[in-house]
């Protein structure tokens, strides 16, 4: 407990120091330009105070004049109704597409990895093609996906699936290949069928490999969705970033970036909790 408190204190101190430097460092640029790099220019990265105010406006908690909408009758609802791609709606659509792409990509990658990992013949036939396709940067396929599926949600989900599926596939494939042969042979000696061997030996042994890929997979799924929204989207946080960039609003871009950061941290934490729950039978380190 003492160690956790010390670590928490360090984390808070580092965060406060970082935001403090970010907030006031540019004020010293004219006096000591050699000490304060150009990256602290508010035109590029804004300031934490401006970003927070912009967050309140983008989330419809504050009007452009600085009044709190929650204190005005119907103020929050009226603000939400003005824009179809407000911060709440954009976060919802981005999160929905991220989870859909993650679920489909993980399921598909796990099934393919298990199938090829258990079959030497299929592995020999299809593995070179999978390796070749995996060598193509999925981000480069995003414009083609937008062209094929349009600027709606489907193209974002497909992009996320293509980013996730190979990460999960290769982990599952290696996991299925590394199952202890003695366990498989023992199951067969006891009269287990191929399906029973797969269900009771292969799949449980592969789960640790699968879960090792889930944390990066959820982050990659979010990246895939955002890239798709950059290229073309009806709504989403990626579109908000592009619109803010077109207007030259650094604070608006930074609000979207911080929202993505928070969403990514929450999703990774949920995956880690799920992993700890499903793999609770493993000995703790």
Protein described:
The chain has 285 residues and is mainly α. The protein contains 12 helices and no strands. The chain has helices at residues 2-24, 42-45, 48-58, 75-82, 87-118, 120-134, 138-149, 153-177, 181-189, 194-231, 237-247, 250-278. It is elongated.
What is the structure about, briefly put?
The protein is mostly helical and 285 residues long. The protein has helices at residues 2-24, 42-45, 48-58, 75-82, 87-118, 120-134, 138-149, 153-177, 181-189, 194-231, 237-247, 250-278. The chain has a domain at 91-236: Orthogonal Bundle (MetI-like fold), CATH 1.10.3720.10.
Strand content range: under 5%
How confident is the prediction overall: mean pLDDT?
Answer: 85
User: Quick one: overall form?
Assistant: elongated
Residue share in helices?
Answer: over 70%
Cα radius of gyration in angstroms = 24 Å
Q: For the record, what CATH class of the domain at 91-236 applies?
A: Mainly Alpha
Termini separation (Å)?
17 Å
Low-pLDDT segments, ≥5 res: none
DSSP, total strands: 0
Order of helices and strands: HHHHHHHHHHHH
Largest sheet: none
The CATH architecture of the domain at 91-236 comes to Orthogonal Bundle
- The structural class is mainly alpha
| CATH domain topology of the domain at 91-236 | MetI-like fold
CATH superfamily of the domain at 91-236, by name, is MetI-like
- Count of helical stretches: 12
Structural key phrases:
285 residues; elongated; 12 helices; MetI-like fold; mainly alpha
